[in-house]
Amino acid sequence: MKQLVIIACCVALSLMAGASGFDKRQPRPTGYAEAGVAGEASRIAFERVDDRAGLVYDTTAHFPHEAAPEFEVKRVAVNGAEAPAFVVRNRGIFNGNRRVHGTEDFSVSVYTGWEPGREYCMLVAGVTSAGTAVALEVKGQADDKSSPLGLGFKPPSGDFPYHSATMTLPRETAEPGAVVKVELDGKRLDGKFCSYVRCFNVGIQDPRDAGQAEGLEGETYTGRIDGSRDFQVVVPCDWVNGSEHTLRVTVALDAGEEEVYEAKGTAPGKGGYWNSAWPHSVSIALEETVGLLRQGEPVHLSLGLFADDVKDPAEEIRVVTYAPKDPKAGDDGYVVAPCQVTSVAEWRDAKMLDHEERDAETGELVHRYDPATTVDLVFLADVLPYEKKVYQVLYGNPDAEALPLDTDLKVEQLGDKYAQGIETSYYRMTTALKSGAVETVTVLGEGAPVLLEHKLETNGAVHWNPGVYAPPTPWVHASDWEWPALEQISGPIMHRTRRYAPLPHMDEKAVTAGVSYTFYAGQPYVLMSSIMEVQRDMFVKAIRNGEIVFNHAVLDEFVWMDPLGQVQSLPLGDTKKHPIHALEVPQDTPWMAFVSREHGVGFASIALAYENTNRYGDPASEAQPYIYVQVGPWIYWSRAMVYPFGGQNLTRVMRARKGSIYLEENAWVPFRLAEGDDPFAEIERLTKQLTHPLEVSEWMNVDDRTPEKWVMPILTMPFDEGVAGAVSAHKEKKEQ
Question: Minimal CA–CA distance to 686: which of 668, 662, 708?
Answer without folding.
Answer: 668
